[in-house]
Amino acid sequence: MKNLSRRTCLSALALTPFAGFAQVGNSYPAKPIRLVVPYPAAGGNDVLARGLKTHWERVWTQPVLVDNKPGGNGALGTEIVAKAPADGYTLLMGSIATHVIGPLLKKKNSRYDPVKDFTAIAMVGNTPLILTVHPSVKANNLREFIALAKTQKEGISYASVGNGSAGHLAGVMFEQMASVDMMHVPYKGISQASTELVGGVVNAAFSNVLNVLPLIKTGKLRALGVTGSSALSILPDVPPISQVLPGYSAELWWGLFGPAGMPIEAVRRINVESNRYLESADAKKKWAEDGITLTPMSQADFVQHIAKDTVRWGDLIQARKISEES
């Protein structure tokens, strides 16, 4: 991705929320809303969608259908929303996977354009990954882990759920910033990756909080750092990796999207009402227990957040020639 194309991407993202809107009256929503989740039930996208569903139904007195449409690593459900009528009644609980990493990895083979085909509406939440190691790894903190990785002749191995996954990219960024070489071992799913890590077949992993929290608490894995900007309230003694590698950041996020050209009043109402839920003390407490930080922000700020992530991850993917097959 050359500098010109990155600037073009940023400009397109900045213009997307404000151009080509249809109009609605003051009655939105006047009928049921379909909220598509492009992954199976119980994942981060799904549980956050259901939290918003409960709030929206209470304040708007309209039914909200959470419609799980898994397939293609999120592409199937995302494409459904891209092609839906832009009337504000078909929405998507998207993520960094559907709107940044997936399209970057697929490049010309992506089934949708993450900028041109969508209206970015509202950020919902984010969560870091956790760098965990098997207890046999002789490192009790990040500095010791980096020193060990630099001296290991055969290299530290780290698991992920596949090439181009968040755990893979977090590891690549770690290698680059720490000036170490590690061996990436991709698996077909979190269950297999976790089993191999707990069994000591691989040394480490950058894993989702919910997946590894029980393993950390039972001592089956040791947590060395989080990929976000601060420690988690549920793991206050696990420092951010950025304390040792300034500027390091690899967080997952979720957000609301609709088809391109949504009515501006519908976008505004969804953004405002979603932020009201995200700002509530009860919601913040509930999701913090799962390692999720609710992230209310304006539509414009959300658009800029996506743009910056697209450039940052695009540069890494291009520099290291990463694809879903590599």
User: What is the tally of beta strands?
Assistant: 10
Question: What overall form do the CA principal axes indicate?
Answer: globular
Number of helices: 11
Any idea of the CATH topology of the largest domain?
Answer: D-Maltodextrin-Binding Protein, domain 2
Report the order of strands and helices.
HEHEHEHEHEHEHEHEEHHEH
- How large is the radius of gyration? 20 Å
Overall average residue pLDDT: 92
Spans of at least 5 consecutive residues with low confidence: 1-22
Domain tally: 2
**Approximately what portion of the residues adopt beta-strand conformation?**
15-25%
Assign a percent range to the helix content. 40-55%
Helix and strand content put the structural class at alpha/beta
Major β-sheet, in short?
10 strands, mixed
Oligomer: single chain
CATH architecture of the largest domain: 3-Layer(aba) Sandwich
Report the CATH C-level class of the largest domain: Alpha Beta
Ends: how far apart?
18 Å
CATH superfamily of the largest domain: Bordetella uptake gene, domain 1
